[in-house]
Amino acid sequence: MKIHNVFPRLCCFLTKSQTRNTYNSCRAFHSTGRSQSVVLTKTRYPNLKRGPFSTLGDVDVQFFERLLPGTGRVLADASEIEGYNTDWLRTCRGCSELVLRPKTTEEVSAILNYCNTHNLAVVPQGGNTGLVGGSVPVFDEVVVSTQLLNQIISLDELSGSLVCQSGCVLGTLEDYIADYNLTIPLDLGAKGSCHIGGNIATNAGGVRLLRYGSLHGSILGLEAVLPNGEILDCMSTLRKDNTGYDLKQLFIGSEGTLGIVTAASVLCPQKPSAVSVAFLGCESFSKVLDIYKQAKGMLAEILSAYEFLDEASVAVNKENLKMTSPIGDFPFFVLIETSGSNGDHDEEKLNTFLEAMMSDGLVLDGTVVTESTKIKDIWSLRERVAEGLLHDGYCYKYDVSLPQAKFYDLVLDMRERLGSSVIRVVGYGHVGDGNLHLNMTSPTYSSEVMGNIEPFVYDWVSKYSGSISAEHGLGFKKRNFIYHSKSKSAVSLMQQIKKSIDPNGIMNPYKVLPEE
Amino acid sequence: MKIHNVFPRLCCFLTKSQTRNTYNSCRAFHSTGRSQSVVLTKTRYPNLKRGPFSTLGDVDVQFFERLLPGTGRVLADASEIEGYNTDWLRTCRGCSELVLRPKTTEEVSAILNYCNTHNLAVVPQGGNTGLVGGSVPVFDEVVVSTQLLNQIISLDELSGSLVCQSGCVLGTLEDYIADYNLTIPLDLGAKGSCHIGGNIATNAGGVRLLRYGSLHGSILGLEAVLPNGEILDCMSTLRKDNTGYDLKQLFIGSEGTLGIVTAASVLCPQKPSAVSVAFLGCESFSKVLDIYKQAKGMLAEILSAYEFLDEASVAVNKENLKMTSPIGDFPFFVLIETSGSNGDHDEEKLNTFLEAMMSDGLVLDGTVVTESTKIKDIWSLRERVAEGLLHDGYCYKYDVSLPQAKFYDLVLDMRERLGSSVIRVVGYGHVGDGNLHLNMTSPTYSSEVMGNIEPFVYDWVSKYSGSISAEHGLGFKKRNFIYHSKSKSAVSLMQQIKKSIDPNGIMNPYKVLPEE
Question: Where are the membrane-spanning stretches (chains A, B) (predicted)?
Fold first, then answer.
């Protein structure tokens, strides 16, 4: 056990260009023709039947061109819409022939009213950073992109309520409110591209959920357009409002199947004046949990993230992204972030905590950084694993919640089960939230490997009362496994609500709810 | 300006017996015959029509007696059910002839199935501490009490998820988990009597919302019985679960109109090891806001409550409850609570903050306490105002959210408007949440006073985009004012959902949704 090496040791193991915002560069895949190599979803799932929707005609396109005048608002050219048809993971590809880019709620309303009347299916799309094929067409759905719904509307500095259109990029919002000493209550690796509307539609979690809770608590109000074009005004900037059913909650996490979120009000917490990140090595997953328990008690109100990576995850960084780790090799790594209003107090708490962890033998080695570029570098180790895995070829991606004690056993069982049929099986994620990211890779998609993974992984999770999708949603790829995490009564009520709000089923079909 | 008197000054101005749990003693009103003095709701609102429900018959009572064997499970004696017919404020009284006290979800299911089949209207009731007449019958609805659904089911110490039946008393849960170093994410003056199920059904706010957020974030799962008796299983102990629509959210704040919550899973945060409370005097409401702004920045992550009382509120304590204030008379009082994991750090932050507030002239005098009984005493000053007001006779009670800057103007306008027609107009509440409690009293109910208050108060709130019910709900008394805070499109969708889930309208009729 090394104890001399804990902190303060600044790490300088990543180049400056390796920033957190890697989604933008991957997004560029789509516009360079690489999307064509992605198998069409309707080809990969030959038994899937297209819904009884109309087929887009010239008269429809002409209507939309009149509705949305100006350049770049109605895209119908195959090369222009290629990126909108393909998901970030390059595992789903639709064949939509039309992308619409409205700028106002009224335009969204007119679009949906027209599509509903003419029985045209619609897929809403934000930053297209989703991981379950929820934001791209399955067949030929019309894509309604929120890219131009990108205006910040207002900010109340005292209460912290930020009102904006749904197409605002998360990172842009974060930068904007930083000047007012506020921060956004969620943080994702995709923040350079993802839209707040997409975050809301998917109930995005991310690394700050441990501190600031879910969007069900942080979204104060929203405006959505229902499938029939009606504008649902649930906008509010109030922290408390108990007047009737909290309808906005229905749209948080319904993945665009009940309507399109056009604007939202976000409760933004005070920006911490001091942030520290510790990156620690330890010998087992049970030690990861022991350290977490201590962190909850000793870091308490300043703990803002508690993440872990296994050795195989860090190997992805090293092998595929040529990154280096600031500490040696260990079976498990823990990333702890603290944020607070008094750097001296936070440092004292963190030091006391780390000394206790070292003397208890829970932590074997570690480093602590406080400088923002160094913090970003450490975070890159955690956040770029998803990108690194894509370099292997095809990535089988799972995002599950489990009781923390059973958390890592799934990785071990999967590794044993798949053996050499895959390149690797890695586990990392949000320990504090009980949220494991389980990933397997192979050079290309293999139905044999997939058959070994599913439904095994879902059965495993279900056995321990976990969630088969902790934060990524069900989208297209996981919808038929919904019963592994939800009761029949619950799914039946979801279907009832869907039918009531979207009787023609035009909103994001083939997503979330299971095939009937 | 006095600066010598700030802290540490321990206050000893209340007797030990004056605890926070004053709801229990008031609840006793109901069983001593005093309820009979409350005007029947159907008499006070003579134009209100009873819904087309069946009338309870002997055969129905016999069914329920078979279903719920044992003593005290089916109450039909007038004196026994008097308290269940009357609300805590003694402003609403129904004439139900039957109270049912199930112990299991299956019993609740059988009750609702029977009532739905036989067209009997039902009102669910928890601790009956609501303030808008939501938990008592309007006419002769059958009362389904959650009093015997009072079992704690499980606790996961590491994740903090507590699973219990819906009739558990909030304070009992808090005491139970304190042994595990956890605390409940909401705290109310009514915690000695209110049930967690009622808290969920009304989306109760309380004094910790500033720190831990609303129940939409803290409730991890729930089980509810739908109006047709079907059991909706949305139970989960997971912090993250994005598998389909988050149906539990619909039941949080729907005030028992969509079903009866029978069990829930609550995310319990780490119990703070150090708590301090400061009680401060200042000269204007704009200073109250200035102090809040500074507290957000300087106390940040340890700030757990920021409350205010006006001079008239403190006068209620003094005149009607014979309490004394630990500091002199000031136009406004601020109660600040900090909670954290390191008492020394918290004290240093609080001291620095208070010194700055004194030297800026924002705070005129104050006291700080850290001992738990003293903390309770200070909190009593804030939490017993509601009780004290009842001693005047009739209390016209409003609970609104407003943009913080406009917050107190409503009190001033109301005071001017009502003049000497009322005993007093007081304002206090949760400044940090933008939530004002506005109260007027008169010796007895006066329709003339009421006509001067409503709809004026709702119009005023609506003009500034506030909420006419921040945390109390709409219940029976405020349902017809829903359009002052919610759009037509939103209310229409609420009605659509209500009709879809409760087609016969048996669940808590005459509540939440407006008269058609």
Answer: none
